[in-house]
């Protein structure tokens, strides 16, 4: 996954959350409430937004950690396959050399 794509997704998510917060704030400001009620609702909504952002951040960290571990395992697996293929190639080359030496004699 490219770094640019990860940044774009994160930026999009944060932009969406910021837009939602602004929209909710505007709706509260234009709703017919007393100042105390309005401040209470804004505080509750801000607390909810902070909780959701923390939850999204935790989920994103877990996904990144999982992707990193999966990638690391895949690289190790491919490394072992390549090492085995190289070793098999060396052995085949040695057998051919021996075969050529025995035919020359």
Task: Describe the overall structure.
The chain is an all-alpha fold and 105 residues long. It is built from 2 helices and no strands. Helix 1 runs antiparallel to helix 2. The relative contact order is 0.05.
Indicate the overall shape. Answer: rod-shaped
User: How many individual helices?
Assistant: 2
Low-confidence stretches: none
Order of helices and strands: HH
| CA gyration radius, whole angstroms | 30 Å
How far apart the termini lie comes to 57 Å
Class from secondary-structure proportions: mainly alpha
**Largest beta sheet, briefly?**
none
According to DSSP, the number of beta strands is 0
Share of helical residues: over 70%
Q: Provide the β-strand percentage band.
A: under 5%
Average of per-residue pLDDT values? 82
């Amino acid at each position: 996954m490219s770094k640019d794509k990860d940044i774009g997704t994160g930026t999009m998510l944060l932009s969406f959350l910021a837009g939602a917060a602004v929209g909710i704030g505007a709706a509260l400001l234009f709703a017919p409430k007393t100042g105390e009620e309005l401040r209470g609702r804004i505080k509750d909504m801000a607390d909810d937004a902070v909780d959701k952002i923390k939850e999204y951040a935790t989920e994103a960290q877990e996904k990144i950690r999982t992707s990193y571990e999966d990638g690391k395992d895949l690289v190790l697996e491919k490394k072992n396959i390549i090492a085995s293929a190289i070793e098999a190639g060396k052995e085949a080359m040695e057998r051919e050399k021996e075969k050529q030496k025995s035919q020359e004699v």
